[in-house]
From TrEMBL, chains A, B:
It is a multi-pass membrane protein. It comes from Rosa chinensis. Keywords: Membrane, Sugar transport, Transmembrane, Transmembrane helix, Transport. The chain crosses the membrane at residues 173-190, 202-226, 238-255, 267-289, 301-319, 325-344. The lineage of its organism: Eukaryota, Viridiplantae, Streptophyta, Embryophyta, Tracheophyta. The keyword Transport applies. Residues 1-20 are annotated as: Disordered. It comes from the Eukaryota. This is Putative nucleotide-sugar transporter. One of its GO terms (cellular component) is Golgi membrane.
Length: 347, 347
């Protein structure tokens, strides 16, 4: 629960560039040292949340592989999603309770809100819902490995929407780095059947692009919501985000799995791995929010890209996976991209 | 014979960075415009030789595919190599004759030389000979497609030797660009069986690295020889380089194909395509020398890398080749590398 220790602070809102340091191994030692000025504290906080997101995301993928090896999904995915949102809500409330105890209730950390503040909170959850619905239809045009490849379009859409909606600038070197990040991630995921994706019909491409835009927009919009009120406590902001997440996922349960839940029970088929996955998803979700608050969407994309590579390397040891030449080449390109992003700050 | 029109000029020896402009489509229009100062002329000359090398190298590969489609090699490779060297010698002499006619014989363009000048000229030819001999042995450890992949190590070895031997600096962005150039070229050449290369035994890796170093060293050493006397006419320098090329290739004929040449004749099995290939190799060889004189090894590497991509694209139209997803990804990475190299100049 690293995030509960973090104090809320104003966000300068334009210092994404040096966050990437955290992906190059420095943060652990720095985070361990004590003291330092406000810049130091900010940098430390960014590093910690970015590192947390990277580790959580890579362990997420490993849990998925593990659960697949252990057998089929026995539980209903909609109840698991609801549980994740509920757990995130509970964790945010627990964090808030602690803060209220220590600092008392202030304007920034009180739970009550205004319509003006809360009205935008359902939008990201709604966008993700639409994207998840589309996901069922895109498989009519693209197979699952092809979909994994096309998902890398998210990187480009996030970069473009970050520029257009948040009006934040990347330097030309950072743009170049972002393009090769997308190419490198895709390269690392290539397998002998990847070329099928080139036969994707136009409808498949359009849906993939729409999904990438929805996903990118949801991410960028979440950042906009969270950063709009810099002094507002992140746990309050998270609480309201997750409340709407619960509402949308409750609707999904009713529509898709109502009978199963009534007949077999809400937690039917949950195993130890299922609980671990829910816990991991909840913590990852909170880490994403923290990265949005203290860093930005670009850092999030780099963090999850590096996590994808870490997952593959860890899978070699855990599951005896073989790394392909394409993976090595993609990893080199992603590493250079991280380096270029960090040296290419807007001056 | 574009190169005959180029006048010899002093070389500033440290302006590789902007040559890459020529790979981004500008040179044709600029080369067509008249006039301009000495900087303009230098830039024009660099652009023309770089463009010539790119076009010649890509058409070289296309001729090879064409000749393979037309049937097996009927001619002896050693006589073809000798013919290339002889043709380059003849072209250099023809260019010199023209210059002597126009400008008279000077210290810089006279053919006669000193032992001090000429003693280093056999070295590149000897290095290439050793490399070509090794080539026969490496196939005991690596298959032909794997060898194509490993040849990309040349890019890295050239960069390192360029830094160490010529003591020329690349900026950190240019180094990053060079690393992704190597990764991008390799990615573009990936095919479903490329992963075999990861099973290459240690001996194979050692030989591949030695060959990359020999090839890189030969290239860098040629540049050092040619740039050592900036005012010396390039056609004289080429003449002496190619004379030793003829000597080494004559030795190769005697060792490998003496009987065949005596019994069937020197030009046995030559077809129209063979003649075209010899002409193309000769012109490409001269273009390489010109790039060494007026640009450098880094430009040469970029030029041949872009040529590799051009070849593949042209082959789609000529031979109905299919481009793989890996090719697209590699091309994106190579393009970004070209861009980064050009904006990443040492200041």
């Amino acid at each position: 629960m690293e995030y509960r220790k973090l104090k809320d602070q104003d966000e300068d809102g334009n210092s994404a560039a040096d966050d990437l340091e955290s992906l190059r191994g420095k943060p652990l030692s720095v985070a361990a040292s004590l003291g330092g000025g406000p810049v130091d504290r900010k940098w430390k906080r960014k590093s910690i949340v970015t590192l947390a997101l990277t580790v959580l995301t890579s362990s997420q993928a490993i849990l998925i592989v593990w659960s697949k090896r252990a057998g089929k999904y026995e539980y209903s995915v909609t109840t698991a999603n609801f549980s994740v949102e509920a757990l995130k809500c509970a964790l945010s409330l627990a964090a808030l309770a602690r803060i209220w105890n220590n600092e008392g209730v202030t304007d920034d950390n009180r739970l009550s809100t205004t319509l003006d503040e809360v009205i935008v909170y359902p939008i990201p959850a709604a966008l993700y819902l639409v994207k998840n619905l589309l996901q069922y239809y895109i498989f009519a045009y693209v197979d699952a490995p092809g979909y994994q490849i096309l998902k890398n379009l998210n990187i480009i859409s996030t970069g473009i929407l970050y520029r257009i909606i948040l009006k934040r600038k990347l330097s030309e070197i950072q743009w170049a780095a972002f393009i090769i990040l997308c190419a490198g991630c895709t390269t690392a995921q290539l397998n002998p059947s990847s070329d099928h994706v080139l036969q994707t019909p136009l409808q498949g491409w359009v849906m993939a692009i729409v999904m990438a835009l929805l996903s990118g927009f949801a991410g960028v919009y979440t950042e906009a919501i969270i950063k709009k009120r810099p002094s507002r406590n992140i746990n309050v902001q998270n609480f309201w985000l997750y409340v709407f997440g619960m509402v949308f996922n409750a609707a999904a349960i009713v529509i898709q799995d109502f009978d199963a839940v009534v007949n077999k029970g809400f937690f039917h088929g949950y195993s130890f791995i299922t609980v671990l996955m829910i816990l991991n998803h909840a913590l990852s979700g909170i880490a994403v929010s923290m990265v949005m608050k203290y860093a930005d969407n670009i850092v999030k994309v780099y963090s999850t890209s590096v996590a994808m590579l870490l997952t593959a390397v860890v899978s070699v040891f855990l599951f005896g996976f073989h790394l392909s030449l394409a993976f090595f080449l993609g990893s080199i390109v992603v590493s250079v991209s991280v380096y270029l992003h960090s040296i290419g700050k807007v001056r």
